[in-house]
Design goal:
The complex is a heterodimer of chains A (about 100) and B (about 200).
Chain A lengths: L17 H10 L1 E6 L2 E7 L6 E7 L15 E4 L19 E5 L5
Antiparallel strand pairs in A: 1-2, 2-3, 4-5
Chain B lengths: L4 E2 L5 H15 L1 H25 L14 H30 L13 H39 L7 E6 L2 E11 L2 E6 L2 E6 L3 E7 L4
Antiparallel strand pairs in B: 2-3, 2-6, 3-4, 4-5
The chains are: A mainly beta (about 100), B alpha+beta (about 200).
């Protein structure tokens, strides 16, 4: 069941479950494409908060080119604070992977 | 709805890499801007240092140079000017962006616009660096040609004495006579017998 509202009291925890990917593959959409980049938009399967996740083929100094055939690791980028979240991290900690079709 | 497919649960290493990549992606525009400003300052310093090179003086007047070398110096300076101007524009574009105006409906998502600008700025930065180095090389070449290029040859004297026409460099003068070096030998001409005389850059 896809959560529609943020889950109250959820602490940060790095957790990856197969159902996250299933849920995200059904509910996420491409919010924009261009310049070798796609933007995924949807609700985090764990916390239910809205999030956007940019995926770029090439990044200025760093990062491997995104391979359209390899799964892309996606993680929650919700901006709300979650207890226990380490510095430098975003979201609630949920992560999964998606196969994103190569954009023309 | 995009045709997304579920992938396997990522490993923790893949997650860490994804976090690092994401951090690079969201910070790429400030990073490329900072790099462009640093390169702009560094390359500007390089050109200033090059200008300080003139403390060591060599020949500075290109009119003293032989003809093809004079043209070479001029071409090098023109090339340096074009490359330097292009480099400055590209480095400024990389450091500060283009003053572009977009239609309201054509403004892309912020992430897309930033990424597009970051890639464009990085490209401009690379091209600006190359052009600045080309400019530097051309300036050095122009200075080198000016210093070490062969001096312009001294003019020749063309004289006619009766039915004899002579042309050559002056190697001696005095007592109403002029000595010309022509065809590898020295010929003395009595000025009183000269009916026509002209100075030229070279003999016909």
């Amino acid at each position: 069941m896809e959560p529609e509202q943020p889950v109250g009291g959820l602490a940060y925890e790095e957790v990856g479950l197969p159902e996250y990917a299933e849920q995200a593959s059904r509910s996420f959409e491409l919010a924009g494409t261009g310049a070798g980049m796609v933007i995924l938009r949807g609700r985090c399967p764990r916390c239910g908060l809205a999030m956007r996740f940019p995926v770029a083929e090439r990044i200025y100094r760093g990062g491997d080119p995104a391979d359209g055939t390899a799964p892309t690791v996606v993680f929650c980028t919700a901006e709300e604070p979650f207890p226990g979240r380490p510095a430098g991290r975003t979201g609630c900690g949920a992560y999964w992977s998606l196969l994103i079709p190569r954009q023309p | 709805m995009a045709s997304l497919e579920a992938g396997p649960v990522p490993t923790l290493e893949a997650l860490a890499k994804a976090h690092a990549t994401h951090a690079l992606l969201v910070s790429e525009l400030p990073r490329v801007r900072a790099a462009a400003q640093a390169w702009r300052n560094g390359l500007g310093g390089l050109l200033v240092a090059l200008a300080g090179f003139s403390l060591v003086k060599g020949r500075s007047d290109i009119t003293q140079l032989d003809s093809p070398w004079k043209v070479l110096v001029g071409a090098s300076l023109l090339g340096a000017f074009i490359a330097g101007g292009g480099s400055a524009l590209l480095l400024l574009r990389a450091a500060h962006g283009r003053p572009a105006v977009a239609a309201r409906d054509a403004v892309p998502a912020a992430e897309l616009a930033d990424h597009d600008e970051a890639l464009g700025a990085a490209r401009a930065l690379r091209q600006g660096i190359v052009l600045c180095l080309v400019c530097t090389a051309l300036l050095v070449a122009a200075v080198g040609f000016t210093w070490y290029g062969p001096a312009k040859a001294s003019p020749v004297l063309s004289v006619r004495s009766g039915t004899v026409a002579l042309c050559g460099r002056i190697v001696g003068f005095g007592a109403g006579r002029v000595t010309l070096l022509t065809g590898g030998r020295q010929v003395e001409v009595k000025l009183a017998d000269v009916t026509d005389m002209a100075v030229a850059d070279s003999c016909p």
